[in-house]
Amino acid sequence: MRHRFTRRTVVAALPLLLAACQSSNRASLPTVNFVSYSTPVEQFDYASAYAPLEDGGFQLPAIAYNDFDPAFLRQTVSSPGNYEPGTIVVSPSTKFLYLIQPDGTAIRYGIGVGREGFAWSGEATVGFKREWPKWFPPDEMIARDSSLEKYRDGMDGGPQNPIGARGLYLWQGNKDTLYRIHGTNQPQSIGTNASSGCIRMWQQDIIDLYNRVDLGAKVVVLA
């Protein structure tokens, strides 16, 4: 089944859970300090990592990785700080997301982050995971772009859906923050400030991350 849930206890809250990256003027989460360097340790086989992919009945195109700054390609690097294994660390300023490994390294991915006025920072957990999630544009987004009105009741998952192949939903306690780590159908946006607050990744990278991350994993988004 294409729309598989991985946390049954939140089914009743689906309209809230599946809202697109909220862009309201709520207070940001607490600021977290960060060591902003990491040393490359190992590169992946990019021809395989970014090859065309069939997933959930959909065809995903290859990523033209040679057209991008190689710093944004998936690679293993030294850990960016003293974090527990399994922690996701997001550095909006450098456009990197790190998944901390048990051996003192991290898998680093390139990301796209929020435009000015839409960014946020702080700590959360992965409260919910979904494959090919439905997209519900928030009211503020519809107000900015009336063409999105037709999706007020949701846009089904698929290659045209801006949430992409996977979604990791960020929670604080029992409250959905409405911020996500998700795929994108705009690969050129990786390495830029382009989203409405959420953290976007290449489809192949979000699938890779999704498969490595557990529910309840800590997420640190840096100021």
What this model shows, in words?
Helix content is 11%, strand content 30%. It is mainly beta. InterPro entries: LD-transpeptidase, LD_TPept_cat_dom, Transpep_catalytic_dom.
Features:
4 helices; hydrolase; 223 residues; disordered N terminus; single chain; cell shape; transferase; mainly beta
Short description:
The chain has helices at 14-17, 46-49, 139-144, 203-212, and strands at residues 40-43, 53-55, 58-60, 75-78, 88-91, 96-100, 105-110, 113-114, 122-131, 166-172, 175-183, 193-195, 199-201, 218-221. The protein is mainly β and 223 residues long. The active site is at 182 (proton donor/acceptor), 198 (nucleophile).
Under CATH, the topology can be stated as L,D-transpeptidase catalytic domain-like
Helix content: 10-25%
Q: Into which percentage range does the β-strand content fall?
A: 25-35%
**Helix/strand class:** mainly beta
- Total beta-strand segments: 14
CATH superfamily: L,D-transpeptidase catalytic domain-like
Overall number of domains: 1
Report the end-to-end length measured between terminal Cα atoms: 38 Å
The shape is globular
Oligomer designation: single chain
CATH top level class name: Mainly Beta
Are there runs of 5+ residues with pLDDT below 50, and where?
Answer: 1-20, 22-36
Domain L,D-TPase catalytic: 86-222
Pathway: Cell wall biogenesis; peptidoglycan biosynthesis
GO cellular component, one term: extracellular region
Active site: 182 (proton donor/acceptor), 198 (nucleophile)
